[in-house]
Amino acid sequence: MKETIHTDDAPAAVGAYSQATTDGDIVFTAGQIPLTPEGDLLDDAPIAVQTEQALDNLLAVLEEAGAAPEDVLKTTVFLADMDDFDEMNETYAGYFDESPPARSAVEAGALPKGAGVEIEAVAVVE
C-alpha cells in the first residue's frame, strides 16, 4: 500500500506532490533542488553548493523513509547546464563513494525556481 513521506528536514513540496512515496519496500523521491528546509533558494550559489543542498535534502527524505545512502539503487540528476557536470559529479561522489547507485544525468531546458540542479532517487527501504 502506498505511503507518503514527509520530513521537516527537507523543504516542503512546492506543488501537488509528496517529498517521497513508498510501498514499504522501495521509496521514490521527488526531485530535490537547492532549497533549504527554511525556504532559502541557493540558485545563485556555485553548482557544488547547489548539489550539496539538493543531496542533503534527498538524504533527509530518504532517512525519513527508512533508507540510507547505501540503499539508493538509482538517481537521476537534472542539470540546467551540462557544463556543470564535472563540478556536480565531484560533489556527488562524496555522498556515494562506496558502491554508488546507477545514475542518469541530463540537461534540462529549465529547472524549478531557476535552480542549477535537481536530483531524485529510488531506494530500497531496509
Describe this structure in words.
The model has no long low-confidence stretch (mean pLDDT 96). Helices cover 22% and strands 25% of the residues. The chain starts with a strand and ends with a strand. A 6-stranded mixed β-sheet has the order 1-2-3-6-4-5, with helices on one face. The radius of gyration is 13 Å and the shape is globular. It is of the alpha+beta class and 126 residues long. The longest helix has 19 residues, at 47-65. Helix 1 crosses helix 2 (85-93). It has a single domain (3-124), classed as RutC-like (60s Ribosomal Protein L30, Chain: A), CATH 3.30.1330.40.
Question: Which superfamily, in CATH terms, is the homologous superfamily?
Answer: RutC-like
Radius of gyration: 13 Å
The CATH class assignment is Alpha Beta
* Multimeric organization: single chain
Main sheet properties: 6 strands, mixed
Taking pLDDT < 50 over at least 5 consecutive residues as the criterion, the unreliable ranges are none
Overall helicity: 10-25%
Number of DSSP helices? 2
Class by SSE composition: alpha+beta
Tell me the span between the first and last alpha carbons.
Answer: 16 Å
Gross CATH architecture = 2-Layer Sandwich
Taking strands numbered 1, 2, ... along the chain, how are they ordered across the largest sheet? Answer: 1-2-3-6-4-5
Number of domains: 1
Proportion of residues in β-strands: 25-35%
What is the N-to-C succession of helices and strands? EEEHEHEE
Protein name: Endoribonuclease L-PSP
GO molecular function: deaminase activity
Pfam families: Ribonuc_L-PSP
Family: Belongs to the RutC family.
